[in-house]
Amino acid sequence: MATHGKKFEKATEALKGVEFFPIKSGLSKVKELSYAKFDESVDVHINLGIDSSKPEQSVKGSVVLPFGTGRTVKVLVFAKGDYADKATKAGADYVGANDLVDKISTGWIDFDYVVATPDMMGPVGKLAKILGPKGLLPNVKAGTVTFDVENIVMELKKGRAFYKNNKQGIINFSIGKVSFDVDKLNDNFIAFIKALLASKPVSAKGQYIKKLTVSSTMGPGIQINLDEVLKV
Known about the structure:
- The chain is globular.
- It has a four-stranded antiparallel sheet with strand order 7-1-8-9, covered by helices on one side. A three-stranded parallel sheet has the order 4-3-5, sandwiched between helices.
- It has about 230 residues and is α/β, with parallel strands linked by helices.
- The chain has two domains: about 5-70 and about 160-230, 2-Layer Sandwich (Ribulose 1,5 Bisphosphate Carboxylase/Oxygenase), CATH 3.30.190; about 75-160, Rossmann fold, CATH 3.40.50.790.
- It has helices at about 5-15, 25-35, 80-90, 100-105, 120-125, 130, 150-160, 180-200, 225-230, and strands at about 40-50, 60-65, 75-80, 95, 115, 160-165, 170-175, 210-215, 220-225.
């Protein structure tokens, strides 16, 4: 059975007597109870009312967070000619074609996102077994297979982030860092919730969001009032 340290137990004690928090108060409490020596992420954990065993009820999408995630991300782009030039100008960290396919084939994965122009998906498809399990394989629905490489690279650098439910029907998503002020965390939270609500599967019945907690990387979970969440 997992045990927690004294700092975690002390943070948990501070939550006794309050079952649910309004959004901003909950985010403030996350900051207040953060105790790690590093800049922790502020994460949202959501239990969805879906049947995760049914593909048509899977929930996934992306959102550009107004204030980013606080992370510095590396973007790799498979493109040639003018599209390669546009990707480079937009800030892509790595741009190439078959040379990058060969490099990744050897086990190199020093990047966070992968974008590809449609004409490059043939060669990129050879990397499916490597990129797929890591969630890095470009796909049309995510907007990472496109000729508009300039725009997607800028969005990824600015703070476009992806979400997807796991096998338990839970979504875990970072909305920033503890060092962010509450207003920025709140704006990122609202942007994410709006995107999530818009992603509700048509076949999902009943209560869509069943439970929502926020926490820092090391801190305790703080339950947020769902009535407020559903009104954003």
